[in-house]
Amino acid sequence: MWLLDTSHDIVSYYCFWSLFYGLGPMIWFYPLNELAITGYEVFVAVWLIPLITAVSPLRRCVQSTVGTVLTEGGMLAGIVSFQAPTTWWRLAILAGGNAAAMLYLCAKLFSGSERTRTGQMWLLMSTNYLLLASRVITKSIAPAWLDHRTNIAVASVLAGSTCAKVFLAVSSRPEKERVLDGNARIDYSTEKAKETTRPQDPTSYPILRQLGHGISFGSVLYLLHWVFGELGVLSRWTVSGGPHSGPTPFFSSPLVLSALLMGTCVPVYFKRFSRSLLCWFLGTAAFFGTYYLDAWPGFACGLCLAGFASVLWTNALDRVPFGHPAVILGSAMLVYLVEIFFHVWTVAYNFVPGGIYTREHSDYLIGFMCLTFLPLFGKTSRNAIFSRPKSIKWIFQAALITAIIGTILRAPLQPRSGKSLDPSIRSFSALIWTYHFGYDNKGWPSLQRSADLLKKTDADIIALLESDASKPYLGHNDLGMWLSENLNMYVDFGPATKDHTWGNLLLSKYPIVSSTHHLLPSPHGELAPAISATLNISGNLVDVISTHMGNDRDVLDREMQTKYLARLSAYSKNPVVFLGYVTSAPGSRDYNYFTKQGMLRDIDPTDKNRWCEYIFYRKLVREGYARISHGGLSDTELQMARFTIPKNLSDYKDNDQYETDSAQVEQWKRFPVDFGQYTKGHYYPWEHNYHMSTPKYFVTKKSPS
């Protein structure tokens, strides 16, 4: 019975964390599409449902056996919401599942003996680490939300565990409580006698102290979600340009998990230190170090922060479960919501009211969080750290083994040169796409479908904009790592996710020799990212510039950004490919500055029906140009070009005519046939097809005979 109870708790808490991490991205989808507050944000109110336990009859109902089973049923519904027919229904059911999950915490963490409560807190923490470890295997995607098969698998385990628990509870003797450790059962009568000797009534604790502990717990939850919601996020926080960019997510994940696990040992061997202000000061320094430092120094601070996060949780063991759930969880979730909304405001400041005061100020948020950690330090009459259930050690071991297995399984998938480096091969293709964070236009995950699409294009270089999903409200999905391993391409992700941009990543079948990450001048509008990278294409160095410039309404921003990027291009000694989201019409001020001061050429100056995406080039010969409809995977089409590197960069002739019949050009020039043939005008069906009078192939004008 003890084994079943523990296994059931592990499964239930695993699903709790899956639901908790899964709601934010679903809510975010709607303002993402509208670029404004939509009203769907109100669904976050489900996280405040513990407030209803302030009513004593409702609390007793929630903490009853029947109430606990009903909340588990609600959690199961939340998990299977992934099978809903529309994303609106998925959001509604998922929100209901999160409400049930919060009530489940009210039932499990705030009833029973001291040992029972602290044991549940241990299980809650350890299953979070188990979920993080399982995401190593699934390449950063939570298994419950990876695809329909894994979703059904997780739901089936929860359903089976709940049914088995109910069946055995009905058939077992009611006077026995579940096993608390591996050796004994506790009678209700004995436990009740023990509890009368302790102040278990939550109302016996000062309300202000409970509020302080709840606020601290809310910040601990947000810290774990923000920086450690996926084990590779820390490397994306501290990444810089290559070749010394810091550890990759693949390499760093086992290290981050080890730091989290080791942090739980600090209070055991250094009890006084773990509750001292010195520990708080060092943890605060590590937090700011992670934020301000890049590459390996920043990552080292992040590992210290991981240990500090676990110390915070273990310090909460003696405090959080011994208050009233309405006060503790109500205040915790309120603080969590304030912090996550503040983080949204630091990035989306250009689209929200009051954003001018929060833009790019995550340092304010870090300072506030560190101050809220203070109530978790100081002396306490309990020693919950020493009453850790035996199962916790096994869960920690299982988490570490899972992460190691995932790392071993993925080692062969790490990108290697997918192209021949034969110097005689001088042609390559480049593609730009605004990726929409890996969600399609209906709000469903699109990773596998987009990977299949990109594979069909056979592009050698891919620039994906709006691609930083390493944020808590975007699911902490590492799109660069996932696509890199699935397409066997090198990846450069930048700037860092802590730098308040929407993301920019570069995928290449050829080795990336070096790169620099840029935060473009943005005095008024949203912060614009750029990557300038040098690639080794069969022994030839080619510079690639990938960028997402500011909105068209921010005129000064775009002017300054254009000048900055044009200088990058003009100063380059190598051939250049510019893959940019420019938000300007052909012939506009910014367009002309790129083509004149930046010394760039447009891939097709005759294409006047463009606004956002552009492909420019210099010291290359253009061979082809194609526009592929988005097919509902994003709100923006794909643009693709093919080039040849001249043998003599100072003496070559570019192709000056175009041909629309692929049969009239060499086979190596042709774009894939998977997207149809030359098509005029927009292609509106939700399929991927050439459109806008492409594909075009460029040829040299024949001399008259």
From TrEMBL:
Query: Which ranges does the record mark as transmembrane?
Result: 12-31, 37-58, 88-110, 207-228, 248-270, 277-293, 299-316, 328-352, 364-382, 394-413
Q: Name one GO biological process term.
A: GPI anchor biosynthetic process
Chief localization: membrane
Q: Which residues form the PGAP2IP C-terminal nuclease-like domain?
A: 426-657
This molecule's function is given as: Involved in lipid remodeling during GPI-anchor maturation.
Q: What is this protein called?
A: PGAP2-interacting protein
Origin: domain of life:
Eukaryota
